[in-house]
Amino acid sequence: MLLTSITPKPLLWPSLWIALTLATLVLLPSHGAFGEDLVSVYQNARDNDPILAAAQASFAATRERVPQARARLLPNVTGSANRSETTRDLPGATLATGQAIPSEKFFSHGWNAQLRQSLFDMPSWFALGGAKASVRAAEFELEAQRQDLIVRVLQAYLNVLRAQDRLDTTNAEVTAVQRQLEQVQQRFEVGLVAITDVLESQAAFDNTEVRRIQAISDLEIAFETLTTLTGSSFERLDRLSETLPIVNPDPFDESAWVDTALSSNLAIRAAAEQLAASRKDVNSKRSEHLPTVAATATQSHNVSGGANFFNSDTTDTTVYGVQITMPIYAGGLTRSRNRESSARVTQAEEQLRNQQLTVTRDTRNLFLSVTTDVVRVKARLRAIKSAQSALDATETGYEVGTRNIVDVLQAQQRLFGSQFDYADSRYNYVLNLMRLRQATGGLSATDLEQLNLFTDAENPVVRIFSLTGRQPSSGG
Q1: Which of 37, 268, 323, 447 is the most exposed place for a label (fewest CB within 10 A)?
Q2: How far is 82 from 113, CA to CA, in rounded Å?
Q3: Looking at the 3D structure of the chain, how many domains does it have?
Q4: Both 154 and 116 in a single domain?
Q5: Phi/psi at 330 (nearest 5 deg)?
Q6: pTM here?
Q7: Residue 433 CB partners (closer than 8 Å, separation 6+)
Q8: Counts of helices then strands in the chain (DSSP H, E)
Q9: Residue 346, Cα to own-chain centre: how many angstroms?
Q10: pLDDT in tens, 124-145
Q11: Shared domain check, 297 and 412
């Protein structure tokens, strides 16, 4: 039983958070004075993404199937015209003087017009129903592409923030290791530590420098990926605010989300319409054994320059009739089409079943991922505090001689790793929550707008060009 009455709310942020954030945004400067936010990036992608543009063109093409199928049931008018030159021998014909007439040469012309209206054509009726079902399926597929664009934009946007956080933690680690190296060198110069401590610190510093260079490259790659998606080059992007609430999905019921997805998921609805179209096609192919009936009205006008029995060179004809066409045998073509259409129905049924199984699995996994992300974010926030405490204790131990420099460097690395993992888990939470919303078929630009309330315009990510020497292009 599908719980169609359960519809998840867009992103499900608590109303209290929204109210507080709205009040805060009123007091902040405009986002445009700082960096681009999530909504403006999405608007660029919506206008420039080639995948969405191709999907829109595909839908426009599919939509034409309906008028094409309907045309077979509407009046059909055809016309033709002709002009000919005739040379005719007249053996035995003579003039009044008795002179023989060897031949006659004359010109003829005329036209013909026919109006045909289908009266009984079951294959065409079923074909029209199948075309309508195909258009509905294409409409669901287009909406699925629109929702997929939202997820792709969000993922590319978060990848930029993720790359910036990696660079931030790497820069902090470089600074810390460099300071540690300077302290170790000073202690070595006065004979307090061995040369191995200096070498260990130098190696750690070199490694962090390599990671910093890689982090800069990754940030530029993330910006370029966003440029490909949106068609615009961005120099600054607003980060996610620390006020972003990390809460469980509402309703906190996995089965309710699955039931909603089974009734509303766009891929399932498209597959269901494709199945309906296939069944209409079966009916159309089976009805090809039936006769078709059409009313016709034909008007013709012919002018001949030659002599005729009635001594007239002009003929006008009007014919009204009913045409019945009965298929008798087509070499097995009709039966073969029946078998093909039946196999297509089986194919569509299995594709629908596969979509239902896949959506059920993905919805359960996404629900589990979101609930796990909630716990993970809180745990990683605690891990930062623990790593900081461990570093402080290790540095104290190093000062009194109970710990070595390797212990200190490893403790520093764990701290910076914990800081990045915390930021990374927040991005995963947002992305998985959006994907869960997408699985139910209810994702929309409104969800991005609500998420955009939790961006920080005063703390943007700034694009770095020093590594490649390139300059920012216009746009964004």
Answers
A1: 323
A2: 12
A3: 2
A4: no
A5: -125, 35
A6: 0.82
A7: 11, 12, 249, 370, 373
A8: 11, 6
A9: 27
A10: 999 999 999 999 999 999 999 9
A11: no
